[in-house]
Structure formats: C-alpha cells, structure tokens
Amino acid sequence: MEEKILVTGCAGFIGFHVCKQLIKKGLFVIGLDNLNNYYDISLKRARLKEIENFSKNNIKGEFLFIKADLKDEKILKNISKVHLPKKVIHLAAQAGVRHSIENPRAYINSNLVGFGNVLEFCKDNQVDHLIYASSSSIYGGNKKIPFSEKDFVDYPVSLYAATKKSNELMAHSYSHLFKLPSTGIRLFTVYGPWGRPDMAPMIFTKSILSSKPIKIFNNGEMFRDFTYIDDVSEAILKLLHLPPKYLNDDKNLNSSELPELTPHRIINIGSSNPINLLEFIDILESEINIKAIRVFEKMQLGDVKKTYADTSYIEDLINYKPNTSLKNGIREFVKWYKNFYKLFS
C-alpha cells in the first residue's frame, strides 16, 4: 500500500513542485488548496492540471486534489475519516510581506487559524512527521549575518513574519505537549519555473518583456539569498523521512532544556550566497536579451535589506548542497516563462 502524504497549498509554487516529486517517488499525495485569488487563479489551475497529468503518466504515485480552506476544521476531520496520511507537508499560507500591511485579516485567518487546525489534525491522527513552511522574513532586520537558526528573532518587521514566528511557537508547543515530530523550514527567496507572480523574477520579467519600467527599492542596495526550487524540493523530501526524535520523558525538566528534548526543529533552507539585486537584474536581462528600464525608489515598509542563510545545520543533517547556480536557475525560469505565457496569453 502506498504511503499517503498530505500536502497543503498543493497549487502553490512550492507545493506544486513538492507534489510532483512525491508522486515520482511512488507516494499517494492528497493535495489541499483553497485556490484563492491572491494572485492569478489560472496559474494555480494550470499547476494543478500539470500535477494531475504527471500523476496519470506515472505508474507508481497517485494524486487526489481536494479544494478546501484550512480555516474550516471540518475539512481536515473529513479527510481523516477516509484517508490517514502519516506525514504532512504544510505549505498553505497567505504569502507576501507587503500584502500583510494591506490585508492583515487574511494572514490571521490562514496563517494562524489555518495552521492551528493543521496542528490539531496532526495531533488527533498521530502523524509521524509534520513539515511546515516558515520564512526567512522571521529574521527581520537582524544585523548579524549569516542568519542562524539560533539567532534571536523576537522582533518581526511585518505581520507576515510575525505569523510565521507564531507558527514556530505553536508547533513547538504541540511537539512538547503531544510528542508531535515537526520541522519548521525557514525558506530563503525561492525562485524558478511556475513561480509566484508577486515575486521579483516574475514581476521583472513581465515588465522587461513589455518594455515597462521595473522598480528597484533602496536604490538597489538589496541582497537576497536566492534558492532554486529544485534544491528546495530535494531538501524537503530528504527531511520528510527524517523526523526529529523525542529524547526524554522527564516531566521535571526546566524550560531552558526543552528545545533540545522536544521533537521540534527549525531549519534554514537557502543557498548561503546573497546576491545583490542589481546583479540579479543583470543576469535576468542577459537571459531575456532585453535591457530593463530601471527606476530606483526608497526602501519599502516591512522589507529588509539583506537575507543570508547559515546552512551548516542542514548540511550536517542531510548533506544538503544546493547545486543550481543563479544563472542556470534564471535561465530555466525564463525558458518556462516564455513557453507558459505563449500558451496561456
């Protein structure tokens, strides 16, 4: 019998790629997504169609899609009556730092209420391992670089980051109280084919190809630890079958000992190679073969100047070494973009 994996946010950028890799490995994937209109629904539907076609052509794995909003706890309860996934990859969330300033309620509903329901589902069904998406946004304006999982991160600079920090605390409490093995992954600027339209690669590419100016914030003094989607998917799949262990049942432990003894961990997934935004644009121009019209603007509210992942923990744990250069990753993205929007324009 195939192992069943629940993937929330299956029609999202990362969820799409993770689902395909799980199916390829011969697993039964139950994919949940609410298909909201935060960005172009047709892109989400195209991802779903691609997963379904991939599943039909794969002799080993299976895919079942359920349209559902995680705010509705009944949905997850109904799933547990029919399917008993023993592992959960929770990637559904209201994304975007800037949008959280304009629409805070969406972040509270999805990232807090929705995540609470996922934790309850995992607890009630004694899930073997929960992997959930956190974010590099948690590090906020930290001056110490590279960003380590051990850094102090109690001062988020956006509501989005605050909800992700809350997710880590909520997951830790469930891990401690109910011995739920869980792994929070702090993702660093994931890019690649099938990416999100609200992120720089898509925004810049669309503008360059239509001869419209691109906005470059903080006068270009921005650095991002760009991480290619295939490297991220590979890391998630390796971590999935390596849950953290509950090391001690001693109920008399003091609070300072809990992080080491609770089956919960936080892991950075990044390239550990921050790239200046202007260099990123140079590479993008080269691959598109069109010069961008550059407009320089001041720093945006809630944004940070630099992200830089310390990946020593994940390197030791699963021998993680992202092997996609930014140039090759952008080349694959541009190739996909031109093909996709030629077909769907």
What does this entry look like structurally?
Its EC number is 4.2.1.46. Keywords: Lyase, NAD. It comes from Prochlorococcus marinus (strain MIT 9515). GO terms for molecular function: dTDP-glucose 4,6-dehydratase activity. This is Putative nucleotide sugar epimerase. With 345 residues, the chain is of the alpha/beta class. The chain has one domain: Rossmann fold. The protein contains 12 helices and 13 strands. It has helices at 13-24, 41-56, 73-82, 99-102, 104-124, 159-178, 200-209, 229-240, 258-261, 277-288, 312-318, 326-344, and strands spanning 4-8, 28-33, 62-67, 87-90, 129-133, 182-187, 190-191, 213-217, 223-224, 227-228, 264-269, 275-276, 293-297. The strands form 4 sheets. Strands 3-2-1-4-5-6-11 form a 7-stranded parallel sheet, with helices on both faces. β2 (28-33), α2 (41-56) and β3 form a beta-alpha-beta unit. The longest helix has 21 residues, at 104-124. The chain is globular and about 55 Å long. The mean pLDDT is 92.
Global structural class: alpha/beta
Cα-to-Cα separation, first versus last residue? 42 Å
CATH top level class name: Alpha Beta
What average pLDDT do the residues reach?
92
Helix content: 40-55%
List strands and helices in order, with pairings.
Layout: E1 4-8, H1 13-24, E2 28-33, H2 41-56, E3 62-67, H3 73-82, E4 87-90, H4 99-102, H5 104-124, E5 129-133, H6 159-178, E6 182-187, E7 190-191, H7 200-209, E8 213-217, E9 223-224, E10 227-228, H8 229-240, H9 258-261, E11 264-269, E12 275-276, H10 277-288, E13 293-297, H11 312-318, H12 326-344
Parallel strand pairs: 1-2, 1-4, 2-3, 4-5, 5-6, 6-11, 7-10, 8-13
Antiparallel strand pairs: 9-12
